[in-house]
Amino acid sequence: MPKKGYWIAHVEVTNPERYKDYVAANGVAFAKYGARFIVRGGTAVDGKTGTPSRQRHVVIEFDSLETAKACLASPEYQAAAKIRDEASTATLIVVEGWDG
Fold first, then answer.
1. Which domain holds residue 54?
2. What 3-state DSSP class applies to 47?
3. Which of 5, 56, 83, 85 would be a feasible disulfide site paired with 68, CB 3.0-4.6 Å?
4. 36 and 61 in contact (C-beta within 8 Å)?
5. Positive or negative torsion for Cα 57, 61, 65, 66
6. What tens digit of pLDDT does each residue of 61-89 get?
7. Do residues 67 and 95 touch, judged by C-beta distance below 8 A?
8. What is the DSSP letter of 41?
9. Can you give the pTM of this predicted structure?
10. DSSP-H helix ranges across 33-98
11. What is the predicted pLDDT for the residue at 46?
């Protein structure tokens, strides 16, 4: 059985209204590739200072690393990513899970 794949994103939203459009648009790709949100925003604190984090943090699980990469490269997600880039500054990595 393949190891799961994850997207880990740290996002600074610069245009909240336009970011809502991104959230609506990314659902098409996420449904197609079976994405499951583990973390989607929520309260976060800086690990060094304990102060609230201004960034939005997201962790998304996929059935495999290959599926996670296919979702990222898909035309559906690439269309959503253009909106994301208009509405935020984001760092996104795709990583293979650990099966312990």
1. 5-96
2. coil
3. 5
4. yes
5. negative
6. 999 999 999 999 999 999 999 999 999 99
7. no
8. S
9. 0.91
10. 65-73, 75-87
11. 86
Starting from the edge strand earliest in sequence, which strands make up the sheet with 36-40, in order?
A: 36-40, 56-62, 5-13, 88-96
Query: Which secondary-structure segment (H or E) carries 24?
Result: helix 16-32
CA distance 19 to 81: 10
If pLDDT is split at 50, 70 and 90, which confidence band does 1 have? confident
* Proportion of the chain above pLDDT 70, given as a percent: 100
Tokens found for residue 20: 């809502």
Cβ(21)–Cβ(79) below 8 Å: no
The C-alpha atoms of residue 85 and residue 58 are separated, in whole angstroms, by 16
At 89, give phi and psi (nearest 5°).
-115, 125
pLDDT in tens, 51-61: 988 789 999 99
How many structural domains comprise the chain? 1
